[in-house]
């Protein structure tokens, strides 16, 4: 069983309100979202668009509910913007996260990303970096990771993601080989690896000692098949229900949890399953996810 002092459980607000498609869950307030997170038994949250930007206001609201901020998504544009520009935005976010007491920032390279394009099919249209872009990207990640660790005490974890320049295992491999383990860790997302046809168990075995943040999301394979056949975009796939909570899809979590547990994983495991809240009641699914994790991990 996992050590409850070292492994914490969080949930992402994207199940209540979708940042990329704000009409999904627009009726759900910030207060309802964090109250229901606490009610379902989670102590960590990532940051959503409806969250107060003032750390003091946010801190008070979360402390009332026994919840803390554990991570925030950061969109990097290392291969399409000057580094100084990316660094400025990165530092601003690190300042906010440090004020919130977070230990992790989750970066995703969004240059040429098709994940947010409503009309671009998610399969077969991702951008492939050339050698020079790979070098710029990996060098930039190392620099950002060094800033985060040495100046803010925060770990940079990289979020591989459908529709981005780092989606497949081969791309994750290349990034991991060309970045410094001291400064760049992996944000391991079970759902995104499964979605693109990789085996999440293979990945967790390979990189367990460089994983500093975990996203638990499951896949409905019949919906992913529909996304492929009908040339749907990533966001259309989300609306159709490609993602769900752990235990509700096709991923076998037993061996994945076993690898993390045996390696002595420390940090947050976060349920991050974006669905249409009108179809998948966020509180109901949060409670189901929490129950599944308790049964499988003892947490």
TrEMBL record:
Keywords: Cobalt, Lyase, Manganese. It catalyses: scyllo-inosose = 3D-3,5/4-trihydroxycyclohexane-1,2-dione + H2O. Pathway: Polyol metabolism; myo-inositol degradation into acetyl-CoA; acetyl-CoA from myo-inositol: step 2/7. Residues 37-293 form the Xylose isomerase-like TIM barrel domain. Its cofactor is Co(2+); Mn(2+); glutathione. Its EC number is 4.2.1.44. This is Inosose dehydratase.
């Amino acid at each position: 069983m996992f050590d409850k002092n070292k492994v914490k459980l969080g949930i992402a607000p994207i199940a209540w309100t979708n940042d990329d498609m704000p009409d999904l869950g627009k009726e759900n307030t910030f207060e309802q979202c964090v109250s229901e997170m606490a009610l379902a038994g989670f102590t960590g949250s990532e940051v959503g668009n409806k969250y107060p930007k003032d750390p003091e206001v946010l801190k008070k609201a979360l402390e009332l509910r026994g919840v803390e901020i554990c991570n925030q998504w950061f969109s990097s544009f290392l291969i399409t913007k000057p580094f100084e520009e990316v660094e400025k935005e990165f530092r601003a976010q690190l300042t906010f996260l440090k004020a919130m007491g977070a230990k992790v920032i989750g970066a995703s390279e969004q240059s040429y990303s098709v994940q947010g394009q409503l009309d671009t099919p998610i399969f077969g249209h991702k951008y492939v970096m050339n050698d020079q872009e790979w070098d710029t990207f990996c060098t930039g990640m190392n620099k950002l990771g060094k800033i985060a660790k040495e100046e803010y005490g925060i770990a940079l974890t990289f979020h591989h993601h459908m529709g981005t320049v780092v989606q497949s295992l081969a791309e994750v491999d290349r990034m991991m080989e060309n970045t410094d383990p001291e400064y760049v860790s992996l944000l391991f997302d079970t759902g995104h690896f499964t979605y693109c046809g990789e085996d999440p168990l293979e990945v967790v075995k390979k990189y367990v000692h460089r994983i500093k943040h975990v996203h638990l999301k499951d896949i409905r394979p019949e919906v992913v098949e529909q996304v492929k056949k009908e040339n749907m975009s990533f966001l259309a796939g989300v609306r159709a229900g490609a993602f769900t909570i752990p235990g509700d899809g096709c991923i076998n979590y037993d061996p994945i949890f076993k690898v993390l547990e045996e390696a002595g994983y420390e940090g947050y495991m976060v349920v991050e399953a974006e669905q249409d809240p009108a179809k998948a009641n966020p509180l109901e699914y949060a409670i189901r996810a929490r129950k599944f994790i308790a049964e499988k991990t003892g947490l």
